[in-house]
Amino acid sequence: KVLHMKADLRKLNKEQLEAVKHYKGPCLVIAGPGTGKTTVITHRVMHLIKEYRVKPNEILVITFTKAAAREMEERFCKLPYYQKDYKRVAFGTFHSIFYRILRAYKGYRLENLLDEKEKYYVIKSIIKTLGYDFYEDEQVIESIISEMSYMYNTLANIDDYEASSIDNAVFKSVFKEYEKYKYYNDKYDYDDMLVHCYKLLISNEEILNSIRAKYRYILIDEFQDINKVQFEIMRLIAYPDNNIFVVGDDDQSIYSFRGADAGIMIEFSRIYNTAVKITLRYNYRSCSAIINSAMSLISNNKNRYEKKFVTVKDMGINPLVVRVEDFEQEAKIICQKIIDHVNQGGSYSEFAVIHRTNLQSRAFIDAFTIANIPYVSYDGLASVYNHWLLKDILAYLKAAIGIDRRNSLIRIINKPNRYIPRYVIEENIGKEGDFLDNIAIYSSLNDFQRKSIYELKDSLCRIRSMTTSKAIKYIRGYIGYEEYIRDYAFAKSIDVKLFDELLDEINSSSESFAKINDYIEHVRIILESVDYKYNENRNTNAVSLMTMHKAKGLEFEQVFISGAVDGVVPYIKGDDISLSELEDERRLFYVAMTRAKRVLYIFVPKNRFSKKVYPSRFIREIDSWLKDYRNSFKCGDKINHKHFGDGIIKGIEKRAEDYILTVEFKNDTKRLNLDVLLKNKIIT
Ligand code: ATP
Ligand code: MG
Fold first, then answer.
1. Where does the UvrD-like helicase C-terminal domain lie (predicted)?
2. Is the pTM for the entire model greater than 0.90?
3. Among the residues of 78-155, which ranges form H helices?
4. 68 CB under 6 A from ligand 1?
5. Ligand 1 within 6 A of 39 CB?
6. What are phi and psi for residue 496, nearest 5 degrees?
7. What contacts 578, CB < 8 A, 6 or more positions away?
8. By CB neighbour count within 10 A (0-12 exposed, 13-18 middle, 19+ buried), where does 532 fall?
9. Which long-range contacts (CB under 8 A, 24 or more apart) does 106-110 make?
C-alpha cells in the first residue's frame, strides 16, 4: 500500500509535488489550464492528512460550483489510501460553507431560505404593494433581482449604489422593502448568506475564533473568480495562521460581471508577502496543437501575466474550423458526428458542446431531443425555454387550439394592449362559457375594446388552421406582438436585440413541427425533462451541453464550440465592444478551447436568422486558422462575395503558397485568391 501511494505521488511532477507537500502558511499556485491545479488540491488534502497528521475535519476545500465540488470530492475518494473517515473533509462551494457557518452559529434553517422562485414572487408582490403597475412584468423583476445580487456580491452600500438596468429610485424602494420583508419574516436568500456570514464574523470575535479553530487548512480552486466578500471572509477565517492555499489562472477569469475580481489573485501575494508562489509548467490535458492554438489566441490579451507551459501529449490535430450554413445546420451536423462516433463504439460522454450565449442551447436541446441523443444541460433551462416571451407565444398557440384556453387568454389579452381593465378580466374568470365571449358582452366595455376582443377571437380562429411557423409569424406581425415587444423594450430601455433574437429562435425551433399541437407537446417534453436531466445524466453516458461560463475546470475528449461568429463570439451587445470586454470574451473562448483533450471543432455558421454573419475575429487570431479554415472550402460550395454576389466554387488550385479559387458568378467566372478574400472578409 505504501508503494502504491508513493507510485501515485511519483506521477506528479516536481512543481506539483512542491505544491502538494506545502505544509503551513499561504501558498499561491498560478498556472495555465490542464496543468494539474485541481489535481494538486486533492493530493494535497491527502498529504495533509497522511503526512502531516492534520485531522480531516479541519480541512476546508472550496470550489466554484456544486458540480465542481462534487466532482472534486469524487476524485479525492478515488485516491489510494482513502479511508472512510476522510469523508469529514469539507468540500463545498462558498455558499454551502457560509450556510454551514450560519446554521451552526445563527440557527439558519433551510426552510427559511428563499429560493430563487420564492424570491421572485416576493419581489413581485412588493412591487404590487408599492403601487407600481408593472408588477406582472417579468423583465423588471429579473432586472431587480440581478441588480440586488451584484450589489451584495460587491459589498456595495444601497445608498451609494446606482442601478443600471432599471430605474434607480424604483430599485431602491423595492430593495428596502425586500430587506424589511426578510427581516420581519425571518427569511434570507442566497446572496444574504455571503453578507450575513461576513457581518457575523466581523462582529463576533468568539464565533470567529471558533470557526478559525475548526477550519485550520483552507484550499480554494478557481481563485481567479473569487469576489470581494468571499475573499474577505476567507482571510478572516485563515488568520492568524494563514494556512490558505489557492490555485488559479488569471487567463481564465470569466466572472467579472458577477463581481469577481482577478486582481485579488495578484493582490494575494501582496497581502501575504510570505506566500510561497508556485507555477506548474506541464499541461497534461490537451494535445499540443490545441494548446498552441489556444496560446496564440490568449497572447492577444494585453492585460495578463504570461505563463509559460508546455504539453506532454503529442501534437494531435489542429482545431477543425467548420463552415456551416446556419445554427440549425450546425446542430444537425454535430448530432450526426456524435451519432457516427457512438455507432463506431464511442460514447456520448466523450463530447461537450460549448456555446457562448444561453439562447444557443435551444437549437441543441431541440436537435438532441429529436435525434434521441442523451444530454446533460449544465445551465438547466436558462434559455429560450424558460423565457416569458416563449410563454406568451405558446399562450397564443394554446388559446387558438383550445389547450388551457382561459389561462392562456389571461396571459396575452393585453399583449399587445387591448385596454381590457384588470377588473373586467377578474370578474369573468369564474364564469361559465367562453372567456372571450363573456368579456366581449361585458356591459362596461366601450366599442373600441369590444372590437379588439372580436379581432382577437377572429385571429385565434385563423391560427387554428395554420402551420406552427406560419402562426408564429402571424402573431408577431399581423396580431402585432412584435411591435408590442419593441415598444415594451423601448419603454424599459432594454436592448430590443435580445427579444428579436428570442423570437427568431422560437421561429427556428417551430420549423420542425408543422402542427401546432406537436410543437406545444415538444416544448412540454423539454420543460419536463431538462430540469432533472442534469442530475439524472451527470454520471451517465450523455453529451454535455453548456455555456462557456459553465465549462470552467472541466475536460472532454472532443469539444464542439458552437457559433464562432462575430457578435456571438465575442458577444457584442450594442454597436461596439470595449477593450476590457473584448479581453473578457477572449478569455471565455480560451476557456472553451482548453477543455478539449484530443479533438476541437470550431463551428462557423454563415448565417444567423437569415442574416449574414462573419467568422469570429478570434479565429483569425489562432495561428493555424487560415490553414484549417481554407480546407473547409470545396468544389460545389456556394459562397457569397461582397462585390460579385452569390457564386459557386468550380475549382481550387494550389499555386506556391496561394490557393486560387475558380468561382462561377451569375454573369461570369472569376479566379480569386482565397486567403486574400478571407483575410479581408470579402467572402462568406
Ligand atoms: P483547469 O485550469 O482547466 O481547471 P487544472 O490545472 O485544474 O485545469 P486538472 O484538471 O487538475 O488541471 O488536470 C488536467 C488533467 O491532467 C486531468 O485529467 C489530470 O488527471 C491530469 N494530470 C494532472 N497532473 C498529472 C500528472 N502529473 N500526470 C498525469 N496526468 C496528470
Ligand atoms: Mg481545475
1. 288-553
2. no
3. 94-106, 116-129, 138-153
4. no
5. yes
6. -70, -15
7. none
8. exposed
9. 106/196, 106/200, 108/188
Q: Is 63 helix (H, G, I), strand (E, B) or coil?
A: strand
Does residue 416 have a cis peptide bond before it, meaning omega lies within 30 degrees of 0?
yes
Of 284, 554, 557, best ligand 1 pocket probe by most atoms within 8 Å of the beta carbon: 284
Burial of 69 (0-12, 13-18, 19+ CB in 10 A): buried
Q: Tell me which residue of 38, 112, 119 sits closest to 76, measured CA to CA.
A: 38
Cell of 613: 454573419
Strand ranges inside 474-625, DSSP E: 543-547, 556-561, 596-605, 607-608, 611-612
36 is in an annotated binding site: yes
Of residues 216, 209, 178, 256, the one with CA closest to residue 53: 216
User: Ligand 1: does its nearest atom lie under 6 Å from the Cβ of 284?
Assistant: yes
Scan for cell 423539454, then name that residue: 526
Binding site annotation covers 38?
yes
Nearest ligand to the C-alpha atom of residue 42: 1
Q: Residue 50's CB: how many other CB atoms inside 10 A?
A: 14
Give the number of the atom of ligand 1 that is nearest the alpha carbon of residue 284: 16
In this structure, the residue with its CA closest to atom 2 of ligand 1 is 33
Decide if 120 contacts 386 (C-beta within 8 A).
Answer: no
For residue 437, count other CB atoms closer than 10 A to its CB: 14
Q: Which three cell numbers stand for residue 263?
A: 486582481
Q: What is the pLDDT of residues 609-662, one digit of tens each?
A: 888 898 899 988 887 666 667 777 888 888 888 888 888 989 888 887 778 889
92 annotated ligand-binding residue = no
ipTM, interface predicted TM-score of the complex: 0.99
In the prediction, which pLDDT does 523 show?
A: 93
Query: Cα(604)–Cα(324) distance, rounded to whole angstroms?
Result: 6
- CA 474 to chain CA mean position, Å: 32
